[in-house]
Write a structure and sequence with these properties.
Layout lengths: L17 E2 L3 E4 L7 E8 L17 E9 L2 E9 L3 H6 L22 E5 L2 E5 L6 E4 L5 E5 L14 E2 L6 E5 L7 E7 L5 E8 L9 E3 L3 E6 L2 E3 L1 H8 L5 H11 L7 H8 L10 E3 L6 E6 L8 E4 L4 E11 L2 E9 L16 E8 L4 E8 L3 E5 L11 E8 L2 E10 L4 E6 L4 E3 L3 E4 L9 E9 L4 E8 L5 E6 L10 E5 L3
Antiparallel strand pairs: 1-5, 2-32, 3-4, 3-33, 4-5, 6-7, 7-8, 8-9, 10-11, 11-12, 12-13, 14-15, 15-18, 16-17, 18-19, 20-21, 21-22, 22-23, 24-25, 25-26, 26-27, 28-30, 29-30, 30-31, 31-32
The structure holds fe (ii) ion (FE2).
């Protein structure tokens, strides 16, 4: 059986590189001093194409160090889970303590720096990892023991405080998801457990200056899929019954969680499925509020992996989101359930209604803004165009004030991943900066780190890598600490 998510540039690379001589076309802006980091799945061993889901592959991080107008290095490294270390023939890493989460797969979804540490992040209660500046694995990350049971791949940094706000989910949390705030010291200073209808996959959330927004949408933990990846065939019927009775109802004690997840392996099924019986809702909680302060708003069933941004506007909240008509229904290998759109959801706190409008109907994903405007009104949004759910050849720029979208094609044989905005100067205006991301060239089977001028979308520089960077998930600019 073929699996699109193991073919072409989805196929894993087999080699870790450390390259210090990199060819560059164009001019790297001299003020860029830091690392562009990006992570994605890269299974280390052979996987079964029939069951492999793209979200479950072993994590590999890619990084390019820029300084003084030069590209100093490119590195790619697998995140060393015990299974990956074993496969590489390295000294076996001990299993992480269950308080850090469980090790179904390696952290593969987002990579960022916070409080002087480089963090490889994943969701769903799976263990996160800390990396060195050179992308080697330090070990599991639980924020100095202050956060138990895993985190999320999509924290949002409050531009005023520098703190990381997040919403985490896990089937072990019962019918709760957890809002958390990680301080600038790298430790959790505030958590709120919020009750939802069951055990949803809550990939991302939104933050405004006043509110936390929960996307409680109908993709939920699936006992059948979970049993298939965690227990031998003869035990699966019993396991399914036990899981179905417990998941989404009760919080699992850590010792029970340790036993239940011991057999879970990555590089296989995703234990979440589209659930038409699950109510689609958006939850709004004041930042300083508690679980009892959450208000819920019905929304048409759909799935949102990624909001672009959100902000308060009078007695309403504006949510700009990339809407998928469905997720994890028929597409069991990756997110591919019909064309996505950029939509605006206006949550009216006065009349209790949520109104949906369409901003742009290009199929798209990986929406980003100038992160200095997280939770504040934004004019511009950046995204990448997709074709049939897969990587396209264009970067999109939305001018939401004018209602216009510009398209920059990178070329017929080129495929783009997420592009991240980096400002020219900390106090400069919105959109005054660059966009950077990996671009794969099918004709050479290699990738570039491409730097675009955010205002014009013209290419400023391309850093040519010696290998390809497989299609992956999220990246961020990690500036050198001053
Ligand atoms: Fe994501």
């Amino acid at each position: 059986m073929s699996n699109d998510y193991l073919e072409g540039n989805y196929a894993p690379v087999r080699q870790e590189h450390t390259i210090t001589e990199l060819a560059v076309t164009g001019t790297i802006p001299a003020h860029l001093d830091g690392r562009y980091l990006r992570i994605g799945p890269n299974p280390i061993a052979e996987v079964d194409p029939e069951t492999y889901h793209w979200f479950t592959g072993d994590g590999m991080v890619h990084g390019v160090r820029l300084r003084d107008g030069r590209a100093q290095w490119y590195r790619n490294r697998w995140v060393r889970t015990p299974a990956v270390a074993h496969a590489l023939g390295e000294v076996a890493r001990r299993r992480a303590p269950i308080r850090t989460g469980f090790e179904m797969t390696g952290a593969n979804t987002n990579v960022l720096s916070h409080a002087g540490r480089t963090l490889a992040l994943v969701e769903g209660g799976i263990t996160n990892y800390e990396l060195t500046e050179d992308l080697d694995t330090v070990g599991p990350c639980d924020f100095g023991g202050t956060l138990r049971g895993g985190y999320t791949a999509h924290p949002h940094r409050d531009p005023n405080t520098g703190e990381l706000h997040a919403v985490s989910y896990s089937f072990g949390r019962g019918n709760r998801v957890q809002y958390s705030v990680i301080g600038v010291d790298g430790r959790a200073r505030h958590t709120v457990d919020v009750t939802v209808t069951g055990s949803p996959m809550m990939h991302d959330f939104s933050l405004t200056e006043k509110h936390v927004v929960f996307y409680d949408l109908p993709v939920t933990f699936d006992p059948r899929q979970a049993a298939a990846i965690s227990v031998p065939p003869g035990m699966r019927a019993l396991s399914r019954l036990v899981l179905a009775a417990l998941v989404g109802r009760v919080r699992w004690p850590e010792p029970f969680m340790a036993i239940a997840t011991k057999g879970m392996r990555g590089n296989g099924n995703l234990p979440y499925r589209w659930n038409p019986r699950y109510p689609a809702r958006v939850g709004v909680m004041p930042r300083a509020g508690g679980a009892g302060d959450v208000r819920w708003f019905d929304v048409e069933p759909c799935y949102v992996f990624h909001p672009l941004n959100a902000y308060d506007e009078g007695n309403a909240i504006v949510l700009d989101v990339v809407r998928h008509p469905k997720a994890c229904d028929r597409g069991l290998h990756g997110p591919n359930e019909g064309p996505t759109t950029l939509d605006r959801w206006l949550v009216d706190l006065a009349d209790g209604k949520l109104r949906e409008t369409r901003l742009d109907d290009h199929p798209q994903e990986y929406p980003r803004i100038d992160d200095r405007l997280i939770g504040r009104p934004h004019r511009y949004g950046y995204a990448v165009q997709t074709f049939g759910g897969h990587a396209g050849d264009s970067v999109l720029k939305h001018d939401l004030r004018r209602g216009q979208t510009s398209t920059r094609r990178l070329g017929a044989h080129h495929r783009v991943g997420e592009f991240t905005f980096v400002p020219h100067a900390p106090q400069g205006p919105e959109d005054d900066g660059v966009l950077m991301g990996f671009v794969y060239d099918e004709s050479t089977d290699r990738s570039d780190l491409t730097i675009l001028d955010a205002a014009s979308l013209e290419t400023i520089a391309a850093i040519h890598l010696p290998d390809r960077v497989p299609y992956g998930f999220h990246g961020n600019w990690a500036p050198t600490a001053s």
